[in-house]
């Protein structure tokens, strides 16, 4: 079902990885707002292929705590090094931006800040509270680092009561050390499990990339592991190499295989599964969560 990547020299993408970009200037409003409020998005810093589409729909994924990560994952385009101190006014500016955009579903992520005593958990909590004050009815989704497995820090974020708590496992265990050497697969599973123990009302979510050399069976096993810790929502997308300095694409996964993963996930009991080549953790997050919301309404 997978299609081998073309040779390294040509790097030609298959037809299902072609994306048309808006040409009407519809992304300018979001770009100008972010610049005015001095905010960062993962859309820009991680070189997301969906950025033009999302900005044209007047939505974005806010990236708090700066744009410098303390980790150096081999798939990620975000800069790494020594980050600056936290900006105490940032939560308020994020809330202001969400209100200006009139968002119904807000996604907030961050760089990893292993340099901070709490890993930035308190900053996440303050951002959640600020958004809740600005938009009481909004769905708030956070995508956090692993906080080095600290239950105290995970609890700080979970107790701030985001609607959705997302943490990505990113890849299969066999490849994890080469892809995210400072993380730990079992620690990520433990985080998702602990969030449910702290606040069972929070929906948990995780995601992984394919095309890194994993097998179909390994992906299925990761999905089973995630369901084993009560994960509600799953995203699966094609890994796309951000630069020549990052890990190479091992294979292009056909859309039919993505659909097989989606169907398998639903059979396992995930409340919603977004699985397609351009899917990312926060891409169409509102539409994905609506699947869960509709199930709860019908129940």
| % residues in beta strands | 15-25%
The rounded Rg comes to 18 Å
Strand elements, count:
11
The third-level CATH topology is TIM Barrel
**Unreliable runs:** 4-10
Shape: globular
CATH homologous superfamily heading: Aldolase class I
Name of the CATH class: Alpha Beta
The CA-CA distance between the termini, in Å, is 37 Å
Strand order of the largest sheet: 2-5-6-7-8-9-11
Overall domain count: 1
Examine the secondary-structure arrangement and name the CATH architecture: Alpha-Beta Barrel
Return the average pLDDT rounded to an integer: 86
Helix content: 25-40%
Sheet with most strands: 7 strands, parallel
> H/E series, N to C?
EHHHEEEHEHEHEHHEHEEHEH
What is the count of helical runs? Answer: 11
Class derived from helix and strand content: alpha/beta
Features:
single chain; 299 residues; TIM Barrel; 7-stranded parallel β-sheet; 11 helices
């Amino acid at each position: 079902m997978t299609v081998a990547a073309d040779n390294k020299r040509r790097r030609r993408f298959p037809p299902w990885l072609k994306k048309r970009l808006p040409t009407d200037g519809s992304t300018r409003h979001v770009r100008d707002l972010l610049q005015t409020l001095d905010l960062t998005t993962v859309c820009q810093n991680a070189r997301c292929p969906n950025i033009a589409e999302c900005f044209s729909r007047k939505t974005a994924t806010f990236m708090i705590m700066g744009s410098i990560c303390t980790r150096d994952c081999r798939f990620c385009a975000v800069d790494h090094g020594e980050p600056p101190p936290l900006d105490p006014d940032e939560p308020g500016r994020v809330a202001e931006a969400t209100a200006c955009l009139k968002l119904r579903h807000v996604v907030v992520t961050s760089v990893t800040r292993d340099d901070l005593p709490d890993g930035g958990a308190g900053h996440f909590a303050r951002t959640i509270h600020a958004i809740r004050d600005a938009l009481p009815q909004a769905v708030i989704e956070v995508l956090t680092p692993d906080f080095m497995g600290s239950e105290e820090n995970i609890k700080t974020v979970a107790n701030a009561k985001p609607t959705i708590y997302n943490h990505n496992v990113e890849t299969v265990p066999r490849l994890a050390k080469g892809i995210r050497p400072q993380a730990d697969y079992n620690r990520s599973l433990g985080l998702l499990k602990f969030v449910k123990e702290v606040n069972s009302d929070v929906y948990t979510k995780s995601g992984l990339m394919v095309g890194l050399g994993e097998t179909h069976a390994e992906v299925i096993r990761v999905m089973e592991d995630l369901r084993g810790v009560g994960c509600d929502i799953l995203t699966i997308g094609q890994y796309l190499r951000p630069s020549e300095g990052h890990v190479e694409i091992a294979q292009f996964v056909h859309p039919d295989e993505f659909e097989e993963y989606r169907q398998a996930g639903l059979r396992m009991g995930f409340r919603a599964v977004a699985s397609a080549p351009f899917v990312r953790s926060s891409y169409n997050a509102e539409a994905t969560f609506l699947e869960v919301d509709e199930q709860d309404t019908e129940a």
